[in-house]
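--- STAGE predict ---
source: upstream dedup step, 1 unique chain passed
mode: sequence only
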Amino acid sequence: QVQLVESGGGLVQPGGSLRLSCAVTGTIFSTNAMGWYRQAPGKQRELVARITRDGTTNYSEYVKGRFTISRGNAKNTVHLQMDSLKPEDTAVYYCNADFGSHYWGQGTQVTVSS
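--- STAGE serialize ---
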């Protein structure tokens, strides 16, 4: 059974940094792509960043230049380095794995507040 295990959320002050990590377990297959989405209260879930198997990345316009997505050394792992965090980045962040079918993590809370 495919599962996504997320880590790294928390509370940080504006201007600070956090690093999210996600690992896929329960499969021998490689993902086509992995990504991070976020959902703030009262808003729809939105793409934050995505990276394909060949390393192509794309970012939301709201995080471009501040966040960096990368693949981990282990198979089917991904990291999201978040710098210069703003209060509007506060949301639950979800890891996504695209095998053709999509799988989601349970979500990790990121709160940016002074």
